[in-house]
Structure formats: C-alpha cells, structure tokens
Design goal:
The chain is an alpha+beta fold. It is built from 9 helices and 10 strands. It has a 4-stranded mixed β-sheet. The protein has a 4-stranded antiparallel β-sheet with strand order 2-3-7-6, with no helix packed on it.
C-alpha cells in the first residue's frame, strides 16, 4: 500500500528531484498518472459527453485495481480503511484524478471511491464503525449538508434548520440546498441549530439516515449534468446517539476541515486546466490556418505561455498550503489564497484553450465546453472567491473574527 506521500516536516528546505516534489511524492504522482492513462480514460470512451458515472462492471474493475494500488478513499484514515494520505498526497491525487472528462466532479471516474464527510471521524468509535467503515468498504457515498437557501457563504450564521430535543431524540425541521449525492446516499451529515439564534454557538452536527420517515429530496438542475439536491426535513427524528460531539460544537468540529478541504478542491481545478492546456498544445501543433500552424502564431504562443505560467503559480500556492497544513500550521489564509487563484486560473486557462480550438472548442466532440461549465461552478463552491478574498483581507488587516 502507498503510504502518506508527504511526511510531516518541521520546515527547512524541501529536497526533491524537480524542485517541487520529494521522491516519494513523484512516485505517487506517476502511479496515479499511469492509472489514469492506462485504465481510467479508456473506460470513458464511448460514454455520452456529459456522463458522470461508469457502467458498474467497469467501475468495479477500476476500484479493485485502485484498492490494490493503495489509492482507496485517499482522504480517510488508514485505520478505518482509507489510504490516509497527507494533505500534500491528497493534492497530488486530486490534480491527476481530475484529468479525465468527468474528473472535475467525479475524480478518476469514481475509481478511488468516495470519502465520507471527514467530520464523521471526529465522532464516537461506534458511529465510525456503524457509518464510516461500511461506506468505505462498500464504496458507498454519503452527503454533507450545511448550506441552506438563506445563505451558503456564511454557513453557520445562515442556518435556519432546527433540531429540538425531545427525550432521547431530536426533531429536525428545515431545508438544505446544493447537496451533492443526496439521492445516492444511505446516510449523511447535517448541521442544525439547537437553541442560540443567529450564532455559531447553536450549531450541532448530526448523522442522518435516509431510510427514516420525514426526509425528502428534489433535484436542482444546474449547468452541469451531475446535479445537486434540495433536502427537506419535516419532523424528522434523530436518535441522540447520532449527534456528533456536544450540542453547539458543530461549527467548531468542522471549521478546520472546511479550510483544509479547499486545498485538494483547488488542486482538482488545476488538473482540469492542465489537461485542457495539453489538448490545446497538441491542437496548435497540428492545426493549420492561412498556410501556417497555429503553433507558429505569436498570439497562440502567448496564450499557451500565460496559461503555463499561471498554472505553475497556482500549483505552488496549493502545495504551499498543503505543506503548511501537514506541518501543523493554521492555513486559513493560505487555503483561501490557493482556492481563489487556482479556481480563477483554471477558468481562464480553459477559456483560452477553447479560443485556440475555435469552433471545435465548443463542440461536444471535445471535453472543453463541459470543463468550461464545470470550472465556472468552482469559483462558487467551497466558498466563493469574494468570501475567500474577505478572509485574506481580514488576515492582512489583523482581524481574526472569521
């Protein structure tokens, strides 16, 4: 099994073969690249342009090999059945796993499994054994529900869903928005308000079983085929043993996990943009216009050069945030910097690549128009660019209120 790609380090120079990665990190990257090239991308051939899942027999075959490679549920702790990679390791996998048609939202077409919401590992051992471990073993999805119609950019103070204690149960009422995989999950994590109004202190974290009465879901059509859902709870009863932590600890339990989650999220957008750039380079070296290759046109050369420069900068910002996190540092500001720069860079790069391909760039024969739509969402998900800039500004000006 592949071990954590980046051990915790206490600062100092980072020795590597190419100035960016250590030897064990390069091994991880090459392992994922080979798997993507030889196994994952060929499995996508013949699928509809906007497909977001493989046929079961193909997915089973890929997942079996991923388990053998030690790349199963890379974010989940090894003692609970995952690969237990460091944040740097997760970043490396996220970038490479995004380099397929559905990779922006289904990394490696689902070959590496679907990590359960990481807050579950802050629950009791009984909760982990009942929910997390079976989901990891069986390759099942679980949802994470914090955003609401009242405002997803301020997830704690915006929460209106309530959980009222009645004996050995809580009664849940409210609506969650933009919930991925709600239709495919047997359980998920829900944050609700118990008591205190409009403050983070009243937020509590619960495990919700989808097979109990009082919960329904409705698809929310968006610009990508892999649509999120609205979850509605009406007098839904949660056993007390399904509460994670104590009352009022919900946001405290998850805040640093949200911060860390932005880093592999950003890395995935770099992977999509890098794949787009490689496609555009190949096109420019073959396509002739007015008697010359596109590659000989200075306008095209500069578009390719700008894209390469920006992607290198984005990658270094993401790696810097990940290395700091693995060293035990607070990365609130670094993760926001990386998230803004990587997602906005990816959008620009994909846009340039479409321009280079011209009409073919928006044809469904190529994945670029799909990536263009999906990259647009990335500037909103996991905290929009404007909120991340606010985080950076507050850190620069000395405010630590967020």
């Amino acid at each position: 099994m592949l071990q954590s790609a980046s051990p915790r380090r206490e600062g100092g120079p980072h020795e590597s073969e190419d100035g960016t990665y250590a030897s064990e990190e390069l091994l991880l990257r090459e392992t994922v690249r080979r798997f993507m090239t030889n196994d994952v991308r060929p499995a996508e051939e013949g699928l509809p342009h906007d497909a977001y899942k493989l046929p079961k027999e193909q997915l089973d075959r890929l997942q079996k090999k991923a388990r053998e490679l030690g790349l199963w549920n890379v974010q989940s702790p090894e003692e609970h059945g995952g690969a237990g990679l460091s944040l740097v390791g997760q970043v490396i996998v996220a970038e490479e796993a995004a380099k397929c048609r559905m990779g922006a939202y289904i990394p490696a077409c689902g070959a590496f499994g679907f990590d359960p919401p990481s807050v579950i590992f802050r629950g009791s051992q009984a909760q982990i054994e009942k929910y997390a471990r079976p989901a990891i073993e069986r390759g099942e999805k679980a949802f994470f529900a914090i955003s609401e119609p009242s405002g997803g950019s301020d997830p704690a103070r915006a929460i209106r869903t309530t959980a009222r204690r009645e004996g050995d149960e809580y009664v849940l009422n409210g609506t969650k928005f933009w919930i991925t995989a709600a239709n495919e999950s047997t359980w998920g994590i829900v944050f609700a308000r118990v008591g205190a109004e409009k403050s983070r202190e009243g937020i509590t974290c619960f495990i919700v079983d989808m097979n109990r009465p009082g919960v329904s879901h409705t698809v929310i059509p968006v610009i990508r085929s892999y649509a999120p859902f609205e979850l509605h709870f009406e007098n839904y009863r949660i056993p007390v043993e399904n509460r994670i932590g104590e009352e009022g600890q919900g946001f405290q339990l998850v805040n640093d996990l949200l911060v860390h989650g932005r880093v592999p999220y950003a890395a995935g957008t770099i992977g999509v943009a890098q794949a787009a750039l490689e496609l555009a380079i190949d096109w420019a070296k073959q396509r002739q216009t007015f008697g010359a290759l596109l590659a000989d046109r200075q306008a095209i050369q500069w578009m390719l050069a700008d894209s390469e420069i920006e992607l290198r900068a984005a990658r270094l910002l993401v790696l810097d945030a990940a290395r700091r996190a693995d060293a035990g540092q607070d990365i609130k500001m670094e993760s926001s910097v990386a998230k803004v720069f990587a997602t906005e860079t990816a959008g620009r790069v994909v846009d340039r690549c479409i321009q280079i391909l011209g009409g073919m760039g928006v044809a469904q024969e190529m994945p670029l128009e799909r990536w263009y739509r999906e990259m647009r969402i990335k500037r909103i998900g996991e905290g929009p660019s404007e909120v991340q800039r606010l985080v950076v500004a507050r850190n620069l000006l000395g405010s630590r209120t967020r």
